[in-house]
Amino acid sequence: MKEMKTIAVVGGDLRQMYLAQAFVQSGYTVYAVGFDEGVEPPEGIIMSDRADIALSLCDAAIFPLPMTLDGKTVNMPLSKHTLDLDDCAKQLPPASLVFGGRIDENTQAIFERTGHPIEDYFRREEFAVHNAQATAEGAVEIILRELPTTIYQRRILVTGFGRISKALVRILTAMGAKVTVAARKYGDLAWAEIWGCQGVHLSNLAECIGEQDVVVNTVPAVVLPRQMLSRLSSSCLLVDLASKPGGVDFETAKQLGLKTIWALSLPGKAAPVTAGEIVKNTIVNMIAERRERDGKN
Amino acid sequence: MKEMKTIAVVGGDLRQMYLAQAFVQSGYTVYAVGFDEGVEPPEGIIMSDRADIALSLCDAAIFPLPMTLDGKTVNMPLSKHTLDLDDCAKQLPPASLVFGGRIDENTQAIFERTGHPIEDYFRREEFAVHNAQATAEGAVEIILRELPTTIYQRRILVTGFGRISKALVRILTAMGAKVTVAARKYGDLAWAEIWGCQGVHLSNLAECIGEQDVVVNTVPAVVLPRQMLSRLSSSCLLVDLASKPGGVDFETAKQLGLKTIWALSLPGKAAPVTAGEIVKNTIVNMIAERRERDGKN
Amino acid sequence: MKEMKTIAVVGGDLRQMYLAQAFVQSGYTVYAVGFDEGVEPPEGIIMSDRADIALSLCDAAIFPLPMTLDGKTVNMPLSKHTLDLDDCAKQLPPASLVFGGRIDENTQAIFERTGHPIEDYFRREEFAVHNAQATAEGAVEIILRELPTTIYQRRILVTGFGRISKALVRILTAMGAKVTVAARKYGDLAWAEIWGCQGVHLSNLAECIGEQDVVVNTVPAVVLPRQMLSRLSSSCLLVDLASKPGGVDFETAKQLGLKTIWALSLPGKAAPVTAGEIVKNTIVNMIAERRERDGKN
Amino acid sequence: MKEMKTIAVVGGDLRQMYLAQAFVQSGYTVYAVGFDEGVEPPEGIIMSDRADIALSLCDAAIFPLPMTLDGKTVNMPLSKHTLDLDDCAKQLPPASLVFGGRIDENTQAIFERTGHPIEDYFRREEFAVHNAQATAEGAVEIILRELPTTIYQRRILVTGFGRISKALVRILTAMGAKVTVAARKYGDLAWAEIWGCQGVHLSNLAECIGEQDVVVNTVPAVVLPRQMLSRLSSSCLLVDLASKPGGVDFETAKQLGLKTIWALSLPGKAAPVTAGEIVKNTIVNMIAERRERDGKN
Question: Of A173, B189, B223, D31, which cross-links B199 as Cys (Cβ 3.0–4.6 Å)?
Fold first, then answer.
């Protein structure tokens, strides 16, 4: 495989701009396309109006997360132009690699037709893990901002024990919170206990909910319906980190006077520079794996 | 010693109100004096306009931090009235205990004249330690809010290794920051290393400053003069937690374009409820120690 | 489902005896069968010579790990008698549950023929997780015993990042070791870094091996062949926790004068009481899940 | 001040030999005196029978801990010879520095008479702190070896909260023990709580003792008399780390059948190489401070 030297970063929001910057800092030549609306470019990035030229020069093209909203054009919120995925595929040199986030089948097909290897960084485990850490920090910021108390010595319930929870409880326990993890798998409860939390099976949640100062949900299913919420003190803070539909019965929470914050896409909001770096590091890994695979063949 | 049942909370800001609330939650009868200007009292506190009556009924009177600003009257920012320390002393029953913060000699003398035991909670070690933890959380909130990155993997320099630093580095290292502690005592550097930081003697600070993303100062002396500040990247965040005069050359920091936040009195601002609880718990310890002393005599 | 009250613990080593004790402490009536050779039974266990009677009285029968060595009789190293699995199945009451470790197909079939629900605690995730924690402590004990230095500030390489590694690095980093994790999955490396280690892809191991004071292997495949071992200092300690064939080229290690310890079955050796409790707690979870399933039907 | 290049290590046990080795590894020329009885010297150390020559060549002489047992001769357990402190003082070049451990007044006077700066590394805070960490690891090794259970989830009482306790509870809490710290100062209890333990005032110890699996004492005074010990379960392990007279009533413990281990001088026993390095690093700091002081004059 040819060495990667020139990268085209195409479309997306500020996170993509920070991704471009991260590649510049690692010594790559970087063209950025689709940032013509009020973006102050970081030093060293070559801002380009001509997608066709930028794409024709690059060893790899990086598209945003999600790559497209309409299935036809690049997701390009910071540009007044549109750019067809079809045109991108045609303008890329034959050996160019293509990376995108949440690639749909149609987009996949477009680039396969022109013979370009296309890979999805959103499906990579290290992307998810590092994003979970960034999400956890964002959640801690929210809790610190909203609580009139310290996190230290507070009783915090975390529902679910996926990546975000794992990252979150490490921080909360180090800050001295008394953390209870409610999850469905006994293996998860075992880890929660080893990591300094109390573990409670979700089927026994009713018995242990009530005295918490904060509840953080990470399960994308309504694990906190009315009969759970009504047991909480009115001063309890609810933070829902789960993607739609969320895990909290928001209507009920409002009626009960519970302060509820539904925080989505925290990495991009709370730490956009890191969010860009995470994508960059993930792509570097994907290139390394491809090189290793190619080396073996 | 008589059992403590009735408390008068006299003067101070919202922190005193939360202190009153904490005593109510522990089963005490609590009179609050000096909160006539726009304070919504928490449930269970007896708000009183008549200091003389409240004081005459109490087993202990708790004054704010600082207890007085002019040496004569109670520090009472949430009241339109004034209250002489002299009058307070006269109205207290003979056996009443008196607690205050940063008590000056004159005030001390006033209450000693009337035979009232007076003690300063501000000089208690557990008060200082718990306040340090609350300050550390406040500092973490500031860093999370200001950084466009995660704390994870950031290089953070902490100058000084008193209580606040000790509390702070526990949180920062758990979040995955690469923390360097600069201090003057080799014993402090030993602890810093045991707790997962790099230790640097303050006399070698010049050699290791420069690549940090955040610098947190806790030393109340200018340990970060121009020759140090000028080595930092312009994107470095400075957080000064030291009381006046602070440890940063603010004028130079401004010239160099360094974002600088001088954060004082964080517990009262970031966690007022906890700030009140800390005073309350300290006073409970002071009463227990007094009882133990009395029991031995 | 009937409530569990009476348990028969059949065969196995001391770990089973501690399991029996753990059930006694939780209020169960416990018969122990197959411990006639020199075992001092803990208080409260009913030692029985008559397997047929004990089995006929029990709500659940618990067999050892592994359940059988020959596919026909119970694994019963502390008894001079033998006990056929077939006979056990026939003597159990119809509703009795059966639990065993590493159950083979044939054994499974024997109990299914008599209509007894049979489940394997060895395949449970919480069993594996808690055993990993016990294994990690055993490994720490070995390292502390063998090293003429503290673990603090030592460079330790851990190969693999399964459950045991995860449990181990939490302890080692808290003790102040500089831990490097070598693993193949980028997601694992991400977690290793979040938890305070350096992460190295196994394909780059050659570049980072050499300066370590300790190497702990957890991968059951030879990840440490001659070209890796020969880079290590002769004072480096090797601890192999992987089941056969292990991950170290033991012959080469010996030639190179490297001290190598191949430690298998650590929970049973280093913490037999805990090993028994882990099986007991796992079975309690399995009974609870069965009850929940039955409750829904 | 002249640069330090040549060191004489005089007397002491194996720890001094490792100290000599540590100086060799840092590039010093090292003479070792007083190791004629069966010591296999590490590579690079110049073993000398002639104390007079070795001393006359050195920039600094390092004596053991304690420096002398009889007040006249060097503490030299690994030699068949004796060496007078007086003679040492006379043979040293005028500018040589002298370092020793637990220097008594008489010894101090001997070297001051010949004009040699003499300093005690045993009184240095960083020496005490690093030794505390090594002691804590030694205590963990004892607990792991003696307990038939994991440390994880065990209830451990630690009496006292000096340096050793601080180092110990960091490890024990990371291993998942439920640690209670009993101390007399409320400030210490505050730190114990911040660091994840339960804090109990020593005057309330009777109320919380009883259910522990392990008790570790660090207070050199009998804080665990009969009325405390008799509340413990007979399976409780007692580890006393306090110097004489220890903090456990050993006679009573024996009568009660409590397994008790009185572990003294753990760093030298459990981690002799590290014990030597700690002395070496402390002396390097002392030389640096002396240089800084001299530079200012």
Answer: B189
